[in-house]
């Protein structure tokens, strides 16, 4: 088999696989609407946070909720997940 084809195939698998492995909390673009600043240090007030959460598609909201329930995933995002968990009934 052609080595070039093997390398391209491996690259494609890695590119697709790594995107599938990344969780919703691992992608900065998913979290940016919830913060007031570009450095993502200050969360928006709860009414704005709620509006940003509800603006996400339902599958994304469900994924965020699931990841915030996972202790290992949510630990680095404790403050964010506390606000998400406060919205638990609003899915």
Polypeptide structure, described:
By secondary structure, this protein is mainly alpha-helical. The chain contains 6 helices and no strands. α4 crosses α6. The longest helix has 19 residues, at 3-21. It is globular, with a radius of gyration of 17 Å. The protein starts with a helix and ends in a 5-residue tail after the last helix.
SSE blueprint:
Elements: H1 3-21, H2 28-31, H3 46-55, H4 58-69, H5 71-74, H6 78-86
Helix pairs in contact: 4-6
Give keywords.
91 residues; mainly alpha; 6 helices; globular
Beta-strand portion reads under 5%
Q: What best-fitting shape do the alpha-carbon axes yield?
A: globular
Helix-strand makeup class: mainly alpha
Mean of residue pLDDT?
A: 82
């Amino acid at each position: 088999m052609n080595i070039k084809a093997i390398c391209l195939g491996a690259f494609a698998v890695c590119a697709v696989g790594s995107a599938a492995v990344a969780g919703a909390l691992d992608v900065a673009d998913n979290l940016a609407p919830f913060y007031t600043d570009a450095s993502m240090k200050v969360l928006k007030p709860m009414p704005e946070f709620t509006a940003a959460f509800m603006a996400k598609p339902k599958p994304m909201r469900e994924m965020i909720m699931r990841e915030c329930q996972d202790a290992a995933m949510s630990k680095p995002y404790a403050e964010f997940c506390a606000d998400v968990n406060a919205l638990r009934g609003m899915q």
